[in-house]
């Protein structure tokens, strides 16, 4: 009975370690560890958790540096940077982040995005025309378009 409990704990531990290493994609990611319980237990658990996660991240970083080769990874070759692979980015906040003109240029060159915008707006206008049945004039306001090709 005792060995079964230890085996299950070991399996859960490996599953948690696998989850952490799968979620950790780039060296710029930083995990946040939150432990609950009594203060002395919380500190001990946090210390243990931090050391474990740090070791997992360092191990994955060293393994990925060894195995990462531009010829083997078409996506890396296309993007030119490992940090852009399989990563969700925090949305840009133009007013808070003080973005420069070059950053806007990247978004303005996104042809697919503006094609999708155009299709969505066309469908919405077609639906409006059907609803009003040519009884009144349709006015479309475009707000917050910035300086992009959407205008």
TrEMBL record:
Coiled-coil segments on the chain, per record: none
InterPro entries membership: Arg_MeTrfase, PRMT5, SAM-dependent_MTases_sf
Gene3D superfamilies: Vaccinia Virus protein VP39
Residue ranges constituting the PRMT5 arginine-N-methyltransferase domain according to the UniProt record: 81-151
GO MF annotation terms: protein-arginine N-methyltransferase activity
GO BP annotation list: regulation of DNA-templated transcription
Keyword Cell division: no
This protein's name: PRMT5 domain-containing protein
Organism of origin: Gongylonema pulchrum
């Amino acid at each position: 009975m005792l060995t079964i409990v230890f085996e299950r704990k070991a399996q859960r531990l490996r599953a948690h370690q696998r989850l952490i290493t799968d979620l950790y994609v780039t060296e710029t990611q930083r995990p946040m560890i939150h432990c609950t319980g009594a203060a002395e237990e919380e500190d001990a658990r946090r210390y243990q958790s931090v050391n474990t996660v740090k070791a997992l991240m360092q191990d994955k970083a060293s393994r990925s540096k060894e195995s990462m080769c531009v010829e083997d990874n078409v996506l890396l070759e296309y993007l030119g940077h490992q940090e852009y692979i399989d990563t969700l980015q925090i949305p840009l906040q133009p007013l808070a982040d003080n973005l420069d003109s070059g950053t806007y240029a990247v978004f303005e060159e996104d042809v697919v995005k503006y094609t999708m915008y155009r299709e969505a707006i066309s469908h919405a206008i077609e639906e409006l025309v059907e609803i009003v049945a040519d009884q009144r004039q349709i006015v479309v306001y475009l707000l917050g378009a910035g300086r992009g090709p959407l205008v």
